[in-house]
Amino acid sequence: MRATRDGTAASGRGPAGALSLGEAPPLCGALAEDAAALARHTENGERLLERLPAPPDRDAEQRRLAATVFASCRQMREQFMRRHADEVYDVLTEGGVRRYRLSELVFAAATRFPGLVPTRVQVDAEGALIQADKEGREIDQGIFFRGILRSPAAGAHLADTMLLASPRALALIDGFRRDGRVDLGPVLVERRNGAGHLTVRNYHCLNAEDNALVEAMETAVDLVLLDEGVRVGVVRGGVMTHPRYEGRRVFSAGINLSDLRNGRISFVEFLLRRELTYVSKLLRGLLLPPGEATFAASSLHKPWVAAVDSFAIGGGMQLLLVCDRVIAADDAFFSLPAAQEGIVPGAGNLRLGRLTGARLARRIILSGKRIRATDSEADLVCDEVVPGHAMDAAVESAVEELDSPAVSANRAMLALAEESPDQFRTYMAEFAFTQACRLYGEDVISKVDRAWSRSRARERPRA
Fold first, then answer.
1. pLDDT tens profile 222-264
2. Cα 353–354–358 angle (5° rounding)?
3. In b/e form, how buried is each residue of 127-146, taking b as 16+ CB within 10 angstroms?
4. 235: part of which helix (H) or strand (E)?
5. Contact 366/347 with Cβ under 8 angstroms?
6. DSSP secondary structure letter of residue 98
7. How far apart are CA 142 and CA 430, in angstroms?
8. What's the confidence (pLDDT) of residue 8?
């Protein structure tokens, strides 16, 4: 059987294959006994891996052995999570009393259940490598989160936890209420005439998404939702300093492929966090903690306007699917090229078809069809197309139109009707595993490496 980077093959032969891990022991169904068996099996696997060279230095037989080890350990982790997800989550959260965010939860699991997920030391070590040179330990995090999110009880608790305001936002909210302005680096948040304006300023990469931008966006969305002086949120790209678009606004160039190639895109803190935090909060609002929730309100909802200049690619287009009003400049375009890049476009597969219909959604997602703001299909993904010089006025008009308590109430009901929390949780369970595997697909690594090489070649001065 052919070995692959994601460890789904399970047969090792030849000199390297002689160092066999053996079959994973069966699980008995008792949490303590099964956890001990998992720890022993994965520890034996780690010992075998330690005898191999680093991934880029392995020969074909050594690569097959590594794939066999990971496949055996991952199969046991998957079986363990299918049996014990609720018990594991109860142990980690003390029966749901503690609310762990994603990184806190997965690293707590690494300590409490050795071998279930990689340790912080292992993840940090991998984070220092380019994507092609990693073992792919984030796949084990994907197995863990798929197990948690599959559970109606544990998954719902985790999803709700991620809808709470972030610690960073809670630390900044008093200053924002007072000053009406917070500079988060990649995102500037300003309150103007009852609207919370999020200006994305990842200038060096045309507002491509990276770990720092995900952190800033969650904080910014939280601040807008928490501030009583803000009634409508607006997301727009800033004026670029990048030579290709200098002096022009850009909405989003999607995921930062250079960071992906260089191993700096985190599975947990980027790919899972963006979906379960700020993208979900745009749609579902901010969940209030028990001490602040009342019989009348358990969450804070506000309408959102997206103003698209130049283009909304990848994650940028995904944001449009959860906003209440989308305004585009007449020279803008939209695309979801994740399949061409080899990855999954977040929850775009869950949401796009509701707006465009199934056939067009497949052409956009599977074939990379690009929609220009002036195309006939554009009214399926945006509400208004105006000349570039009229964007400011169109945004102000939309803010004024959406500034109503009844709008906030109805958009919350629309979100519930269109996408139930259980539907989202179920989707995210499979997304967690699939996206983790895709990060280490050979096709993905080849594509991002070629894109990086082309980018470097364009940057080199000509002789």
1. 999 999 999 999 999 999 998 989 999 999 999 999 999 999 9
2. 30
3. eeebbbebbbbbbbbbbbbb
4. strand 232-237
5. no
6. S
7. 9
8. 41
Average pLDDT, the chain: 93
Q: Give the bridge partners for 199, in sequence order.
A: 188, 236
Of residues 318, 276, 294, the one with CA closest to residue 160: 276
CB count in 10 Å sphere of residue 192: 13
- What DSSP line would sit under 16-75, residue for residue? HHTS---PPPPP-S-HHHHHHHHHHHHHHHHHHHHTSPPGGG--HHHHHHHHHHHHHHHH
Mind listing the pLDDT tens digit for each residue in 130-178?
Answer: 999 999 999 999 999 999 999 999 999 999 999 999 999 999 999 999 9
Q: Give 413's contacts (C-beta < 8 A, 6+ positions apart).
A: none
Give the C-alpha separation, 327 to 395, whole Å: 7
SS (H, E, C) 257-271: HHHHHCCCCCHHHHH
Amino acid in position 10: A
**Cross-strand partners of 308:** 328
Structure token digits, residue 233: 């949120």
CA–CA distance, 319 with 312 (Å, rounded to integer):
9
Burial 353-367 (b: 16+ CB within 10 A, else e): bebbeeebbbebbee
Q: Which of 221, 227, 223, 234 is nearest to 195 (CA)?
A: 234
> Which one-letter amino acid corresponds to residue 347?
A
Q: pTM above 0.85?
A: yes
Closest to 66 in 3D by CA, of 45, 39, 38: 45
Query: What is d(CA 365, CA 369) in angstroms, rounded to the nearest whole number?
Result: 7
The H-or-E segment that residue 278 falls in is: helix 278-284
Nearest residue to 113 (alpha-carbon basis) of 136, 134, 140: 140
Q: What is the pLDDT of residues 268-289, one digit of tens each?
A: 999 999 999 999 999 999 999 9
Give me the residue label for tokens 């982790």. 77
With CA atoms as reference, report the closest residue to 278 among 143, 138, 184, 179: 184
Rounded Cα distance, 122 and 396, in Å: 49
- Cα distances from 63 to residues 13, 41, 132, 144, 364, in angstroms, run 11, 19, 13, 24, 36
CA distances from 124 to 128, 135, 363 (A): 7, 12, 38
| Degrees, nearest 5: CA angle 133-139-145 | 150
